[in-house]
Amino acid sequence: MKTYRCTVAAVALLLASHALHSPAQTEGHRIATNQDHSVAAIQDTETAAQRDARMAWWREARFGMFIHWGLYSIPAGTWNGKQIPGIGEWIMNSASIPVADYKALASQFNPTAFSAHDIVALAKAAGMKYIVITAKHHDGFAMFDSKADPFNIVAATPFHRDPLRELAEECRKQGVKLGFYYSQDQDWTAPGGAAYKRGNHDRPNHHWDPSQDGDFASYLHTKAIPQMKELLTNYGDFPVVIWFDTPTPDMTPALAGEIVALLNQHPNLIWNNRLGGGYKGDTETPEQFIPAQGYPGRDWEACMTMNDTWGYKSYDTNFKSTETLLRNLIDIASKGGNYLLNIGPDSKGNVPPAEIERLQQVGKWLAVNGEAIYGTHATLFGSEAGSFSTAEKDKEGKPKFIPTWNWRSTTTDDAIYIELFSWPKGSFHLDKLPRTVTSAYLLADKSKKPLKITNSAGGIDIALPVQALDPIATVLVLKTK
Ligand code: JFZ
Fold it and tell me: 440: closest CA among 150, 116, 149, 430?
């Protein structure tokens, strides 16, 4: 779904201005990224050491919970008796729902089953170290107490509670970090908010209801920026992450600069690459895919659904297996990225049982094998992940990456972890190793029984027991010097 709304002219302009003012990649010890903007972002001004300190917890964490939750969980994929194709949180746009009809959902929203305690406990049980929840999605409905705009969960629903406040408290108690997703650009219920094109929305602004029309800068000044201020000041030490989304050309460098000036007041904040206005942010955000080789030199986080929707859809039962989810986590860690895995609570606030079940299973594996994931670095090998086909091309016409799933590897300063998906007969063989192995054992073996190591001209062999210790992934630890 790569239909970012930008004109060819706008792109050409951006590229041209970048070529003209393009700063050197590194300038002394500072990392130059967005210096052609009038408002410099923290990434432009901090030192590499400051950056490492700011990103440290996030790089350690490796695994987070994305929560897409809002009014769209009421229709849950069905409008006027029709199942609406596409992701559930887009239903207002996909079904061209008039603003007044959509806003009327608020009076029915009473998610009394919502438990911040249980959701944070679920994240913990899954081995997740942080949560990012939709504070406001493209539908413009604020899931928090907002004085800046009345279309919010406290003022406009019978629920009257602020789930973000409750989550912040629980996260503090249970030691999980909390971040907020905020749709800064698209807003389908506020005048002037942007909209991506769906269906027959053929007007230049892609609006389908005249009440959406207005001035984008006024929308930013009267709703989005005031709400971001609320989010950044009303929740104590949270949010630690702001997750922007779907920038359009409406977000000019100057307007984005106003947001950056606000972000700059919170020097520990981490924010992604979806603000717009040419700002690169801290993190790349591959969505629903794992890049073949990560993003060398950039922090990155793959966000993914468990089924085929972010926001709850009652009839989407196309859940990935625990095996797939766990392989994805390991694959991502082996390429140096984070995994932001989504849950979509329903209109009562319940997390779908299929999601709970899978998260608990992933958590069981991490409880035994987490040492191979948290705080580790990317593989020292690389070819184990697969190779580029010489015959097949991907969607962009480049050689297609064909993954292989025998094993992955992660590293720390004194260990190499080999996550084995398929169990080799007799021994695990490596042709060459950049370090010297001093001992080997299986991470799931409580006694850490040493495995026999044989070095030869042909490489290194580690003798393995007959049976894998885990049906999905057994971790072989090579202590190194
Ligand atoms: C965006 C959101 O639109 C989506 O609802 C969800 O929050 C996801 C994590 O982020 O995903 C996109 C981005 C771009 C398009 C569609 C969904 N697009 O270009 O049509």
Answer: 430
For ligand 1, atom 13, name the residue with the nearest CA: 246
Same domain, yes or no: 414 and 304: no
CB 62 within 8 A of CB 374: yes
Q: Is the dihedral of CA 103, 220, 179, 325 positive or negative?
A: positive
Cβ count near 3 (within 10 Å): 8
Range of the domain at 224: 8-372
Give tens-digit pLDDT for 251-289. Answer: 999 999 999 999 999 999 999 999 999 999 999 999 999
Verify whether ligand 1 is closer than 6 Å to residue 185 (CB atom): no
196 lines ligand 1 (CB under 6 A): yes
| Same domain assignment for residues 117 and 244 | yes
In this structure, the residue with its CA closest to atom 16 of ligand 1 is: 1
User: Among 330, 348, 372, which residue terminates a domain?
Assistant: 372
pLDDT digits (tens, 9 = 90+) for 178-236: 999 999 999 999 999 999 999 889 999 999 999 999 999 999 999 999 999 999 999 99
